[in-house]
Structures are given as C-alpha cells and as structure tokens.
Amino acid sequence: MDTSANNGPVNIGQVLNQARIRRRLSVDQVSDALHIRREYLLALEQNRWDDLPGEVYAQGFLKNYARYVDLNPEAMVEERRRQIGQPVDRPPVPPLEPLSRTGLYTQTVDRSSGSSQPPHKRAARREKAEAPDYSSPSSLIWLLGALLVLFVGGLFLLAHSSHPSSAPRHPLAAGQAKKAPSKNVGSDGSRATKTKTRSHVPSTSTVATNPVNVQLQTTSQSGKLFYANYLVNRTPVKVTLNFSAACWVDTVINGVTQPGKMYYGGQKVSFTGSKSVDVILGSHAVAVHVDGRQVSLPSPSYVLDMTFQG
Q1: 118-152: pLDDT as tens digits
Q2: Contacts of 89 (CB under 8 A, 6+ apart)
Q3: Where do the domains of the chain lie, and which CATH numbers do they carry?
Q4: Cα–Cα distances in angstroms (integers) from residue 61 to residues 5, 269, 301, in the given order
Q5: pTM for the full model?
C-alpha cells in the first residue's frame, strides 16, 4: 500500500497493481485463477469502487486478490473499511511497512520467535499445553478414586448383562395354557362355536414421495445483477451449493439476511428455509441443487440473485 509522509490514505489499487507486476502476472491470469471478471480486477487496481457490484462483493474480491498476490488480505480489507468509515470488527493489525525497492507493503511479524502473537500470549499457551502434575498426594488420591469407581461400575454392568431377563417373551413361555373356544347351546339344541373376532389392522402402505419440481417464474436485470425467481412445490426448501472454485455467497433465509462468506473449490454448503431461500453468487464456479435436483444457472456472465420460494 502507498502511504505518504503525512500518513495519508493508502492507495489500495496501486498496491494491488504493483504486487501483480512484481509476480509477473497478467490481469487475465489472475482472473482465470480467482474466477473473478477481468473488469472487476481492473476496477480494483484503478480504485473504481463504484464499478463493482457492491461493497460486500468489493471487499470479498479485494481479500481474494490480496491473498493471491502475497499481500495481507485482512489488512487490505480493514484499510478499505477505514477509508469508507465502516467499523473494524477485529483487533488492529500491526502496521504495514514497505518492502525495499518495490513500494509494496507487508505485515510486521516477529521472525525470531516464529509467531506473530505477543510473548505473554505465547507463554500462556505453553502453560495451558503443559501436562497436569500428578505427583502431589491429593492428585494421586483423586486418580485412584476415579479408577476404583470405573472398576466397580464395570463389574456391576457385567453382572447385570450376564443374567437373562425374567420376563417371558411370549405368553406361552410363562406356562399359560391356550384357551379353547367356548361352546354355547343354541335354541335348536345344536352347539355353536363362539370365536373371537380380531380387528384387521391394515398394513401401512408405502406412500410415494412427490418428486421436487423447481419452476422458473420471473427473471429481471438491474445493473450487474441478474434476478431469477423460482417456485418450489414443497417446503421446507433446501438449497445445496457445490463449489469448483472461489465464490462469494450472500444468503437471505425466510426474509432474514445472513452474513456473507467466501467459499473455495471442493467445498459444499446447504441452506434450508421453511418458506424461502435466496442466494447471491459472486461467480459461476458453483453447481446449485434444490432438494437434490440440479438447477442450471440462469445467466452466463452476471452476478446472480436466485430466489427459491416454497
């Protein structure tokens, strides 16, 4: 990042540009690797934040870009938040210092200790990792008592499991005689056999599960966002995303906005809503399934906002 002598704002775009050139990468190479559109990368390098699809996506793209060119992604995002007046929801990171001859910035780390944590925190972690002291008499007594309780409990369970249950499994096993049907004499002198009727319990039939039906209702476009509304024939609605590369995702479940998150290739995530699930996808490196049925992406290039209504 580019700081001046009077500690002015950091030129985020220039830092990204210099880091990419230092690694001898083209914009197209970075776009192919991160699955972020070329014009978005150029907008980041030229500080054209209004040309990005939104501040949430802009910070996600910035974090991915910084990590790819060996910059500190957290420091870059926090610098962006400071510039636009957003609160920084994490402890302040160490100051950024320029590398020699390049003008790039890196995070100051204590290399001698091999960790960026303060010495008192590292000492506390080592103390927690130490094994407990069983050499004291009180600790030894507690340990022997615990072993004795486990031993007695094991003998109790073994004794009860070796005796068969005293309750008979069938009425005939308890010595009960099978009752013969009672006979009554009819009015004509004949004997009629009285039998007990048993109520017939119908067998439970297997109910065929209705296959899920996902129908595209409406589509629209606003700027760089492409909206698609789907109707699902049953609830709750379960949307599963399988990622083949990096992709930023925002979700709205039952009308409540959830925190956005960046996912990477090989990851899988599911969202379930009793009424609706709305997913906003920052890239097309994802396969969308609704209750196990794959849904094709409605647009090949725009940022997608897909709403599934039960």
Answers
A1: 444 444 454 444 445 555 667 778 888 888 888 88
A2: none
A3: 12-107 (1.10.260.40), 214-309 (no CATH)
A4: 29, 20, 16
A5: 0.39
